[in-house]
């Protein structure tokens, strides 16, 4: 008999992209951009953010979004989780300052609560758990669209000066760097949509590379400014604990709240996985615009929460699928199609 090769636990999604993000942070810590190099990196990062939101606009299928309108109760529930329940819990985290979180980490913690939901991982986990996948697609898409407008406005209202100052110039920068490219992508989708669909994998690498550039620039600024001396291992541990509580509360609220609202099992799964997620892809470029030189500390809670939600929801999705198999009357095999978690 041949010996089986040891495998990592299937519930531990070691996403290569997360490893790339960690490597980028290490690179910024060892070789931060400074002086002229920092100016070049900053300009490239600004262009990368604009290009990211242009791609977001060009990829968005308006027809798909309209098809999901009939599930308006489900979508409103997900939006309420993302942009009402999460922000309220984020505001409650002010009570953790200064004993658990520093003011800077608390600002980042609140910012992660304002970020829209994900699309890919919401779909992936809903599929694994045998939930309503079309609803998850539409809910994630609606949340991403709403986040482009709602997240900056909520940040301006709730973060105040802790976000680096939200003056008229800052809001103008948001419009030029985020909203204008998004609208341009939507307007040009008719002509470039086919090209983007044909080169989806290549453009996926481009937008992920753009996010890595944003992370490198933000963490380089943090290293040069010396703000990392403010974060101790004990503070990081406390931040992880606070985020674990946040994720547990949102998973419970989205699941049992959807049950109280009368949703069926498949819809509840979609609500839970779409309503408890936060998008790293949307949050990182937004933070670079909103927080400026303070972006490195602002995105740290989001990066940690992103990996935590992948690990916890991978376990939860497979448990939901197992529960369904155990209760299935026909005893048929139910297997999830392979999906990519991002």
- How large is the share of residues in beta strands? under 5%
**CA distance, first residue to last residue:** 37 Å
Assembly context of the chains: single chain
The averaged pLDDT comes out at 80
Main sheet makeup: none
Helix content: over 70%
Rg on CA atoms, Å: 20 Å
Number of DSSP strand runs: 0
Based on Cα principal axes, name the global outline: globular
Q: What structural category arises from helix and sheet content? A: mainly alpha
- Name the helix and strand elements from N-terminus to C-terminus, one letter apiece: HHHHHHHHHHHHH
Description:
It is globular, with a radius of gyration of 20 Å. Helices cover 74% and strands 0% of the residues. The two termini are 37 Å apart. Helix 10 (233-260) crosses helix 13. The chain is mainly α and 342 residues long. It has helices at 16-30, 36-59, 62-67, 72-92, 103-114, 120-128, 133-158, 168-198, 200-225, 233-260, 265-275, 280-291, 295-327.
Topology overview:
Elements: H1 16-30, H2 36-59, H3 62-67, H4 72-92, H5 103-114, H6 120-128, H7 133-158, H8 168-198, H9 200-225, H10 233-260, H11 265-275, H12 280-291, H13 295-327
Quick overview:
By secondary structure, the chain is an all-alpha fold. The protein has 13 helices and no strands. The chain has helices at residues 16-30, 36-59, 62-67, 72-92, 103-114, 120-128, 133-158, 168-198, 200-225, 233-260, 265-275, 280-291, 295-327.
